[in-house]
Amino acid sequence: MLSTLVLSRRCTNNALVKNFFGVLCLCLAPCLSLSAGDALSQRHAGQGELILTQLDSAPFPHPDRAQGHKYEDKFFSAEDHYSDKTVGIFIPKGFHSGKTIDFVVHFHGWANNVTSVFERYKLIEQLVESRRKAILVVPQGPRNASDSFGGKLEDAGGFKRFMADVMATLPERTSLTNKKVAVGKIILSGHSGGYHVISSILERGGLTDHVNEVGCSMPFTGRPISFFPGSRRPMVGCSIFTPRTAGQRSKPKS
Asked: What is the number of other CB atoms lying within 10 angstroms of the CB of residue 101?
């Protein structure tokens, strides 16, 4: 009887401990995420100003992924893969805005996230070394998922709304306090599946006339696309393939 009572108490205590740690992890999750963002910002403090912010106009969540997404035999839930509104914004050291601000907007490929993209592909280092006077913007696409869908940025006017939010965020969250500036030239950059959202942005994003360069690494792997439709500006486009992916691409329509 005594041993049964002791065992019962142990089970109850174990359950309480598990519940306590479960609640603690839920409470600390936002703090841990924030700390990761802070650490990333601190690592690049010598190169400029990096913030990770949340924007309602970011690609997700989106109604078309409200029930998640299945690719082959893998299912990606909406909660884990299509609810992150994170947008990374990097301002190079010594950057000064005039009447307009130029941007490089980068879209990651499959199985990735904003923090990983900055670290793995050295995006900040590349921008700094290029000496391009532009601000780098990296929105979170499908988080760690096998999916090329661009969410709200594929909607009509979605990219224009997104860039308006980015412009509004600059004086609120960064050292750039001038609110009387406009969007200048835009470079769209994409890796692998990131080409998909770029195609939609050029077709119906609302800022096509501001886009003057497009760069894609290993793109054109899912659908035929139409680059530079209806633009009245001359644009420069390039694509880079590895020997493995060169035979998999679809030819873009001119």
From this structure: 24
Number of Cβ within 10 Å of residue 181's Cβ equals 15
Cα(58)–Cα(139) distance, integer angstroms = 6
CA-CA distance, 3 to 16, in Å (whole number)?
20
- Looking at residue 154, the DSSP 8-state letter turns out to be G
At residue 4, the pLDDT reads 42
For 54-69, the pLDDT digits (tens) are 999 999 999 999 999 9
CB of 152 within 8 A of CB of 159?
no
Q: What distance in Å separates the CA atoms of residue 140 and residue 144, rounded to the nearest whole number?
A: 10
Q: Are 136 and 220 in contact (CB under 8 A)?
A: no
How far is Cα 138 from Cα 119, in angstroms, rounded to an integer? 12
* Secondary structure letter of residue 115 according to DSSP: H
Largest CA distance in the chain: 86
